[in-house]
Write a structure and sequence with these properties.
Chain lengths: ~325, ~260
């Protein structure tokens, strides 16, 4: 009917039309409400003297606390490095064509995932009570070298070993999952090209498996940073044990727990940032963008601010 | 066995459980010849091709490339299966191009092409990289050496896969439905590269549904159905004057 005419008018006028964005008053109201709640929480943290902020400041960089942080980092590093090394071996055993190897790996994962970590640690701690001597020699035959268990496995070794063996069970499943996530066509192509077996695993499968291993491994590392706190039962001076020692002496419980919490936050933050870069490294050649778009936006925002210090700050609604 | 045939397939049988996929296949390809295998899906074409480079183990019969068994060593009347290392070494004589390309997504185009010659054949890197540049130019992708596979179209990826197969300097190149995963407008560029190879004297076995390609390029067309080669011969004879009803029925459906 009149449609053609209308169409013509619209095209003629369209140059002069401006677009008015829809308003979202609801977003502003919820935003404001959350801001008020945040301010209240912040106020409650800062103004309540029971939080003992001066004491937190006093002990945050106290040498004994710093040593404990270092020890926690060491335990984590050992646990993760040894755990993933053994875990990778277990995963390859599990995927191997030798049935006994696969069963042994399965049995290991079953056992070490089933027994609580704290129990495992106490077993290792008390290993000397079970076996006084550890001998190296012919299986079931004569021994060439015998060492007292106490000398070989002290509390620190027991803790690191306990964490690593426990971690290995989880790492094995993560690594195995990573290998299973690689398209079988990749291995077929590598085999068709005659690429040697070890090279197929290291050059073709592993880098692709890493894409799904890294996020899960990041979880595990962050979990272990905090998980190291269970070794306090062995009276080892890691972060959690150390702050307990201090507050048992000074009675400033809340402040010392805050000190520990702040350090755990710092450690996990550093690890999260590290994970972002590792993931980006293994995401090479893949169209899907890296893990955290928020991280990129943050970096871009910081770069803009550095380039134009006066302008980027406000960040109005978008 | 003599050097007369580059590929010599005799009496090959293969079953998956109760399902017989190959039921006595004979196929001979002379050096420099192009053989195109056509046939309905499930007829055993791909299994045969994968048997030739021992990606599938055959149950009976034998397959030889240039007088050498791929997966076995003969002593007297027995065929001993070889160790994986030796099978991998012999596979480098055979190029294989997959339907889904199977390029390594985390490696650049150049690394995809140079990986196997360096790690499997232990040829010097300089020589292999020069060859890779040459091959990429040959398939029309000289500008893409540093791109990653995902940044390329399907047709470009398949051309990289062809260059990767050729980098081994294989005695024969096997193509397993190389254009079936491609958008129709990209099929032509891949077929052009394959035609150029055929003209250059590469020995090829191609499983495909592209009857036009078979007609133009093949020295021999083999029609497979239900695990057997029903008939084979020069393209005009098999494609235009097929002797068997099954061939006629198949061609009637695809042409």
């Amino acid at each position: 009917m009149t449609a053609p005419v209308v169409l013509e008018e619209t095209t003629a006028e369209s140059a002069a039309l401006t677009v008015v964005r829809a308003r979202h008053p609801g977003r502003w109201i919820t935003g404001a409400a959350v801001a008020v709640l945040l301010a209240m929480a912040g106020n409650a943290l800062v103004t309540n003297p029971a939080w003992d902020w001066p004491v937190v400041g006093e002990y945050l960089f106290h040498p004994s606390v710093l040593h404990a942080v270092l020890f926690t980092v060491e335990l984590t590093a050992l646990g993760i490095a040894l755990g993933f090394l053994l875990g990778t071996v277990l995963a390859l055993m599990r995927l191997s064509r030798v049935p006994l190897l696969a069963s042994v790996a399965w049995g290991y994962v079953w056992l070490f995932r089933s027994v609580p970590l704290i129990l495992q640690l106490l077993f290792w701690y008390n290993l000397a009570a079970l076996y006084k001597q550890i001998s190296f020699g012919v299986p079931f035959g004569p021994a060439f070298l015998s060492v007292g268990t106490m000398d070989l496995i002290g509390p620190v070794t027991a803790a690191a070993l306990g964490l690593a063996l426990h971690q290995a069970a989880y790492a094995a499943e993560i690594v195995r999952g990573g290998f299973l996530s690689v398209d079988p066509g990749q291995l077929e192509a590598a085999a068709a090209l005659g690429i040697p077996r070890a090279r197929q695993i290291l050059r073709i499968q592993l880098p692709q498996a890493m894409r799904s291993i890294v996020p899960a491994a990041g979880n595990e590392i962050i979990g272990l940073v905090k998980g190291t706190s269970v070794v306090y039962i062995m009276a080892l001076p890691e972060l959690f044990y150390q702050v307990q020692v201090i507050y048992n002496r000074t009675g400033r419980v809340i402040a010392m727990l805050l000190v520990a919490a702040i350090w755990y936050l710092v450690l996990t933050t550093v690890l999260s940032v590290g994970q972002y870069y590792v993931e980006r490294r293994f995401g090479r050649g893949l169209a899907r963008p890296g893990p955290s778009a928020r991280m990129r936006r943050l970096r871009r925002a910081l770069a803009v601010r550095r380039a134009a210090p006066r302008r980027g700050g406000e960040g109005g609604p978008r | 066995m003599s050097g007369e045939f580059m590929v010599d397939v005799r009496g090959v049988h293969k079953s998956y459980g109760p399902l017989e996929v190959l039921r006595g296949v004979d196929l001979r390809v002379r050096p420099g010849e192009v053989t195109v295998i056509i046939g309905p899906s499930g007829s055993g074409k791909s299994t045969l091709l994968r048997g030739i480079n021992h990606l599938e183990k055959i149950d009976r019969g034998y397959i030889a490339i240039d007088g050498e068994f791929v997966g076995y060593r003969r002593s007297g009347n027995r065929l001993h299966e070889l160790k994986e290392r030796e099978i991998l070494r012999r596979r480098t004589h055979i190029g294989f191009v997959f339907q889904n390309f199977n390029l390594f997504p985390h490696l650049t185009v150049r690394q995809n092409v140079t990986e196997a010659p360096i790690s499997a054949q232990r040829r010097p890197r300089d020589e292999v990289e020069a060859l890779a540049a040459e091959l990429l130019e040959q398939v029309g992708l000289s500008g893409k050496a540093d791109a990653y596979p995902r940044q390329l179209s399907g047709g470009q990826q398949q051309r990289v896969a062809i260059a990767r197969a050729l980098a081994l300097r294989p005695k024969v190149v096997l193509f397993d439905e190389p254009t079936s995963a491609l958008d129709p407008e990209l099929v032509g560029e891949v077929l052009e590269v394959m035609k150029a190879l055929a003209r250059g004297g590469t020995t090829m076995i191609v499983v495909t549904h592209e009857i036009g390609f078979a007609r133009e390029v093949a020295d021999t067309v083999a029609f497979m159905d239900a695990g057997r080669i029903v008939e084979q011969g020069p393209p005009p004879r098999v494609l235009d004057r097929p002797e068997h009803d099954r061939t006629r029925a198949f061609l009637g459906r695809v042409l």
